Amino acid sequence: MTDSVNTRELILGILLEVETEKNYSHLVIRSVLEKYQYLDKRERAFITRVSEGTIQRKIELDYIIDQFSRVKTKKMKPVIREILRMSVYQLKYMDAIPASAACNEAVKLAKRKGFASLGGFVNGVLRNISRNLTAVTYPDEEKEPVRALSVRYSMPEWIVEQWILDYGSARTKEILRASLTPAPLTIRTNLSRITPEALRERLALEGVTAQPLEKEKYPELSYAFAISGFDYLNGLSCFREGLFYVQDISSMLVAEYAAPKPGDRCLDVCAAPGGKSIHLAEKLDGTGRVVARDLSEQKVALIEENIARCGLKNITAECHDATVYDETQKEAADVLIADLPCSGLGVLRRKTDIKYRTSAADCAALAALQRQILSVVCGYVRPGGTLIYSTCTINRAENEENAAWFAAEHPQYELVAMRQMFPEEQAGDGFFIAKFKRKADV
Fold first, then answer.
1. Which residues form the domain of 100?
2. Mean pLDDT of 45-61
């Protein structure tokens, strides 16, 4: 790996920013890759792989290190702890990196960061791990099922416990396996500007492979592709021209469930970055109106940026707090999208550090906030209209239980469809959609 800009030093910086400054991993990695766009594709891929992998596997990596180090990871200096984590990740999960290189580079990095006195400690721990990786013992799944799954799949124990309670052990293992697999990058054709066939040809000219989705699994998503073979999105003229929108498959299904009709008025109450709102606007084919709202001016600016790139005229963005009732919207929406703040446990493949940031108490607070928002925004739907409640999480309290609560508390609404999507079942994220119809005579 070329060290003109030391890639391992960049990775260490990413890990420290995520761990000590509590910044979100996907944003930190994106920022570094944008700053160092001039690095070749292989170096950028190395930065992404080691950064994401180290964060993703942190619990397991600490478990391994603690078996071979007299100083446990919790007691280590942050710089040394992150150097060891990223090095053990390379030793265990990157066969192309020679063990000697991983160990030597770790020692150099420790010295470069002012910890020359700990170079021998770093070297000793890593050499010992390297020699004995196949001999690492893991918790016994028969005796300690929750701890065993937590260590093996680097998932906090409380999440493992909750998923076993909600979905059973077999399903939980599948979710855990899927949470460690790479997430595909999927896009949706901007049908107001180009056909899927023409987009695929344009992408091919830029060296991008665009793979259509399985028709049997996603018959309604004939306009979507999984793309690969490119360096970064802003380098693609197709992206800059707004010919496609990056969106997860599960998220695309929200507009399909909403099924807006020509001329409909649609309201998205928590819309940033705007993918679902823009999808609705495209489906309206120049008719109707979509209002995309979010809490902060910064989020609204992001929605407006995406609207402008996609070139749509029947959509506007507004700043509004979804917990505050807006009398001007009373019974004004034919379609309302409530894609509400959630624990995000369905998107762990993309946002690897979410699992370490959230707690059972956070999930309970979010479930309560979701109920509060639903009780406010349900007044915006006209009789006969549609309300879509969705989240990007895998948690019964935030999903099925909230849908049941809403149906019971608001009898003017009828639950007509409900779906919990799991990441191991499909290419998309873990996601939940509940579709309600407001009764015409209530």
1. 7-135
2. 97
236 and 258 fall within a common domain: no
Q: For the whole model, what pTM was predicted? A: 0.93
Residue 121 has pLDDT above 80, yes or no: yes
Q: Does residue 347 lie in a domain region?
A: yes
> For residue 303, what pLDDT band results from cuts at 50, 70 and 90?
very high
Q: Which residues are catalytic?
A: 392
pLDDT (0 to 100) of residue 4: 57
Residue 284 has pLDDT above 90, yes or no: yes
- The domain tally of the chain equals 4
**Cβ-proximal residues to 245 (8 Å cutoff; 6+ apart), any chain:** 187, 188, 190, 275, 278, 279, 306, 310
